[in-house]
Structure to design on (731 residues):
C-alpha cells in the first residue's frame, strides 16, 4: 500500500504535471527550431506569437460562449483554436513581409535577424496588452476534471490523491497528434521534404529548383500554428497572462537548444527533459520517502533539492551546461 | 511664467502671515506623489475635516483656528520626505505632524526630523511592525494597527477552528514576509505547529511547483498571505486541483468577492480576517465624509480623521499646542475611562476636556491605543459561505 501511495504521489505531483508542461514546451520549441532550421535565427518573438494566437483564441471563445456554442465536456477554446491559428499565421506572415524579408534580401547575418525579432517581440507585446490588457484572463470551460482527488481516493482506497484535469489530458493528446502530423508532413510530403532540404543545404536546395519564398512561408505558417496551439494549451491548463509568455521563452529556448536546435525530434525531447527537471528538482520528497522508508528513517526536513523560487534557474543551468559541454545538443542540431 | 510663480509665492506668503494670529499649524505629510498618490488626497481631506470641525467649534484653546499645511512624503523617498518635514517645522512653524503614510518614510521623518525637533507625529497608515519598537521619545503614535497584530488575531481564529498544524505561503514582498512571520510566531506561541513557510512570486502562470512543496510539508490548513487577484489565487486554485488542501486561511489581502467568484465552491469553509469595525463611529464618519466629497470607502481616510482629532483633543487636554505637552495626553484622550466620543462630536469633547473631564475617543475606527501608542485595531472575522464573504464577528 505504501509503495502504491508513493507511486501515486509521484504521478500526481511530478509525472502528470511535467508531461503536460513538457508538451507545451515541446510545441513551443518546435516552432523555434523550425524557424531556426529554415531562416537561421533565434526568433525571440515566438513567445509573443504564442500569446497573440492565444489571445485571438480567447476572444473568439468569448464570442462563441456568448452565442451559447459549446463542446459539451470539452473546452470551447478547441473550436476557437483554428481562428487563433489563422490570426497568428497572418501576423507572422505580415511581420516576415514587413521586417524579415528586407534583411533576407540584404543577406544580413543571423544576429541582425535576432535583434529585429526582439523589436517585433516588443511591438507584439504592446499590441497584446492594448487589445486584451495585462491581466489574467479565464477562458476555460467544460468539465474541469476527468477524475478528482476525492473520486480517486474513493475508488482506490489510497490515502494519496491523484487528479487528472481535462486540460492536462487534452494537452498531452493534442501534442502527440500534432507531433505525429508534423513528422508526417516533414518526411512524407513534397513541401516537407523541400523544407528539410532547404534547411540542410540552402545552395543545393536552390539549385534543385526549390522555391525559397515558399519554404519560408511554410516555415512561418507551421511556426505560427504550433505557437498558437502551445499558447492556448498553456493558457487553458494554467492561466492566460500576456507577461507569462515572455518568461516562457527561457525554458522554450533551453528545450530547443538542449535537443539540438533545428532538429524537430530534439525539440520534443528537450521540452520533456526541461519540464521534468524543473518539476523534479524543485519537488519536496518528504512524503515520498516517508512512504518508502520505515518510520524510524522517515525524513524530518522537506528533502527538497532547490526551492521552487529557482524553477526557472533550473532551465537556465541546463542551457548553460549544454552550451558549454555539447553546443550542438543531444540530437546534434546546428551550433548557435 | 517666472513672474507668475513669483507672484504666487508672494501671495501665499502674504496669506500665511495674515493668519498668524491665534492659529495653530498642523503638518499634513502624505504621499501626494508616488505609489499611493491615489489615496493621499482623501486621507488629507479627512484629516482636514477634523481640523475644520475643531476650528468651526471655536472651542480649542479659547478659539484657536487650525491651519493644515500639506507636504509631500512621496511614500518612498526618505530624503525628500525628511526635507519636506524639516521645512514645515522650521519655516512654517507647525506644532505637530499628521503623517506620514508609508512605513519607510514615516520611520525616516521620525528619526531625522520629529525626534530632533521634539514634534509629535500621528501616522494614519504606517503598519510596519518595526515601528512598534523604534526609538520615539514618546512622540510617535499611529491610528493604524501594526501588521504584527493581524498575525495575532488570525492565529486566535485558527486555534478556535481547531487547527493544529498549518502551512504558510506568502507573496514575496515586505508585506507578505512580515505578515507570514507574525502569523507563524503567533500561531506557534499558541501551541500550533507550522510545517513550512514558503514564498510565491506574483504574476506567474503556473503555481504547481509551489503547491507541490506546500503539499509535501502538509498541514490542516494553508495560510495564504498574498493578493487575491495575484499569486494567492493561483496557489489556492493549484492546491484545490491537486487535492493538497481543502481549507484556506485568508489574511486581509485575500478577502474580496472576486476570489470566491474565481475559485468557486472549493473555497467554501475557508476563513480569514480583514481590518474592520462595527463601531457606530464608522457609519457616522462615512456620512460626514460623503458630505465633504471624500470618496466612499477611501482607504485610511477614517484613520486620518482620527489621527488629526486625537492630536487636537490632546492639545485641549494639555492646555497647550506644544508637542512636549500634548504627547503625554494622547493616550489619555484615546483610551477609557471617560465619555465616548464619536466623529462629529469633537466640539462636545473639547467642552468636556475644558471642564477637566475624561474622554474616551472612539472615532471612526474605534481607536484604542496600546503598547507604545499604536492602534490595537479591530478586525472582522469572515468565512466564505456559498461563494460569499460573510461576517462571523468582530474582534
Amino acid at each position: 500500500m505504501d509503495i502504491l501511495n508513493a507511486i501515486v504521489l509521484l504521478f500526481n505531483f511530478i509525472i502528470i504535471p511535467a508531461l503536460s508542461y513538457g508538451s507545451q514546451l515541446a510545441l513551443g520549441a518546435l516552432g523555434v527550431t523550425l524557424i531556426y532550421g529554415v531562416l537561421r535565427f533565434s526568433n525571440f518573438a515566438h513567445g509573443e506569437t504564442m500569446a497573440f494566437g492565444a489571445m485571438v483564441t480567447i476572444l473568439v471563445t468569448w464570442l462563441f460562449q456568448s452565442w451559447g456554442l459549446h463542446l459539451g465536456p470539452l473546452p470551447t477554446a478547441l473550436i476557437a483554436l483554428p481562428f487563433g491559428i489563422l490570426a497568428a499565421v497572418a501576423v507572422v506572415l505580415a511581420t516576415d513581409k514587413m521586417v524579415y524579408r528586407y534583411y533576407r534580401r540584404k543577406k544580413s547575418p543571423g544576429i541582425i535577424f535576432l535583434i529585429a525579432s526582439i523589436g517585433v517581440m516588443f511591438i507584439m507585446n504592446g499590441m497584446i496588452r492594448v487589445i486584451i490588457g495585462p491581466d489574467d484572463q479565464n477562458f476555460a470551460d467544460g468539465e474541469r476534471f476527468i477524475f478528482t482527488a476525492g473520486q480517486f481516493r474513493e475508488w482506490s482506497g489510497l490515502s494519496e490523491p491523484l487528479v487528472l484535469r481535462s486540460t492536462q489530458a487534452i494537452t498531452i493528446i493534442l501534442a502527440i497528434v500534432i507531433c505525429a502530423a508534423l513528422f508526417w508532413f516533414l518526411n512524407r510530403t513534397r513541401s516537407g521534404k523541400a523544407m528539410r532540404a532547404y534547411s540542410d543545404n540552402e545552395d543545393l536546395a536552390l539549385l534543385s529548383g526549390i522555391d525559397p519564398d515558399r519554404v519560408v512561408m511554410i516555415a512561418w505558417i507551421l511556426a505560427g500554428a504550433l505557437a498558437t496551439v502551445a499558447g492556448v494549451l498553456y493558457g487553458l491548463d494554467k492561466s492566460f497572462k500576456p507577461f507569462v509568455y515572455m518568461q516562457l521563452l527561457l525554458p522554450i529556448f533551453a528545450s530547443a537548444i538542449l535537443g539540438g536546435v533545428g532538429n524537430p525530434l530534439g525539440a520534443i525531447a528537450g521540452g520533456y527533459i526541461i519540464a521534468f527537471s524543473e518539476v523534479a528538482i524543485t519537488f519536496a520528497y518528504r512524503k515520498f520517502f516517508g512512504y518508502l522508508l520505515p518510520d524510524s528513517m522517515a525524513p524530518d526536513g522537506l528533502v527538497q533539492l532547490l526551492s521552487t523560487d529557482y524553477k526557472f534557474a533550473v532551465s537556465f543551468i541546463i542551457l548553460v551546461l549544454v552550451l558549454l559541454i555539447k553546443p550542438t545538443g543531444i540530437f546534434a542540431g546546428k551550433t548557435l | 511664467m517666472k513672474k507668475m510663480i513669483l507672484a504666487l509665492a508672494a501671495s501665499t506668503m502674504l496669506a500665511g502671515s495674515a493668519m498668524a494670529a491665534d492659529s495653530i499649524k498642523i503638518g499634513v505629510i502624505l504621499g501626494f506623489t508616488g505609489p499611493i498618490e491615489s489615496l493621499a488626497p482623501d486621507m488629507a481631506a479627512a484629516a482636514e475635516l477634523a481640523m475644520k470641525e475643531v476650528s468651526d467649534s471655536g472651542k480649542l484653546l479659547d478659539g484657536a483656528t487650525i491651519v493644515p499645511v500639506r507636504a509631500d512624503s512621496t511614500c518612498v523617498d526618505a530624503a525628500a520626505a525628511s526635507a519636506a518635514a524639516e521645512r514645515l517645522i522650521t519655516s512654517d512653524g507647525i506644532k505637530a505632524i499628521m503623517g506620514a503614510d508609508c512605513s519607510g518614510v514615516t520611520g525616516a521623518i521620525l528619526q531625522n526630523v520629529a525626534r530632533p525637533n521634539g514634534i509629535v507625529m500621528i501616522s494614519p497608515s504606517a503598519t510596519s511592525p518595526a515601528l512598534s519598537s523604534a526609538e520615539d521619545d514618546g512622540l510617535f503614535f499611529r491610528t493604524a494597527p501594526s501588521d504584527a497584530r493581524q498575525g495575532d488575531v488570525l492565529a486566535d481564529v485558527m486555534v478556535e477552528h481547531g487547527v493544529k498544524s498549518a502551512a504558510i505561503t506568502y507573496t514575496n514582498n515586505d508585506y507578505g514576509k512580515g505578515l507570514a512571520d507574525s502569523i507563524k510566531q503567533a500561531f506557534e506561541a499558541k501551541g500550533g505547529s507550522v510545517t513550512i513557510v514558503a514564498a510565491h512570486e506574483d504574476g506567474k502562470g503556473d503555481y504547481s511547483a509551489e503547491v507541490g512543496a506546500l503539499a509535501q510539508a502538509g498541514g490542516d490548513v494553508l495560510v495564504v498571505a498574498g493578493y487575491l487577484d495575484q499569486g494567492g489565487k493561483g496557489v489556492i486554485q493549484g492546491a484545490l486541483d491537486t487535492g493538497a488542501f481543502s481549507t484556506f486561511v485568508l489574511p486581509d489581502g485575500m478577502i474580496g468577492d472576486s476570489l470566491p467568484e474565481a475559485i468557486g465552491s472549493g473555497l467554501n469553509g475557508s476563513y480569514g480576517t480583514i481590518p474592520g469595525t462595527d463601531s457606530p463611529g464608522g457609519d457616522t464618519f462615512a456620512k460626514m465624509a460623503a458630505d465633504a466629497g471624500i470618496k466612499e470607502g477611501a482607504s485610511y481616510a477614517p484613520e486620518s480623521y482620527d489621527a488629526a482629532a486625537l492630536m487636537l483633543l490632546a492639545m485641549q487636554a494639555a492646555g497647550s499646542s506644544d508637542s512636549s505637552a500634548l504627547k503625554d495626553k494622547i493616550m489619555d484622550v484615546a483610551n477609557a475611562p471617560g465619555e465616548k466620543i464619536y466623529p462629529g462630536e469633537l466640539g462636545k469633547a473639547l467642552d468636556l476636556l475644558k471642564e477637566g473631564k475624561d474622554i474616551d475617543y472612539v472615532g471612526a475606527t474605534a481607536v484604542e491605543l496600546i503598547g507604545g501608542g499604536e492602534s490595537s485595531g479591530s478586525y472582522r472575522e469572515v468565512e466564505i459561505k456559498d461563494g460569499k464573504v460573510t461576517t462571523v464577528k468582530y474582534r
Notes: The CA atoms of residues 318 and 324 of chain A lie 10 Å apart. Chain A touches chain B at residues 12-14, 17, 21, 135-136, 138, 148-150, 153, 161, 163, 165, 234-235, 238-241, 243-244, 247-248, 278-279, 282-288, 302, 304, 307-309, 311 (CB under 8 Å). Chain A is about 75% helix and 0% strand. Chain A has one domain: 2-134+143-325.
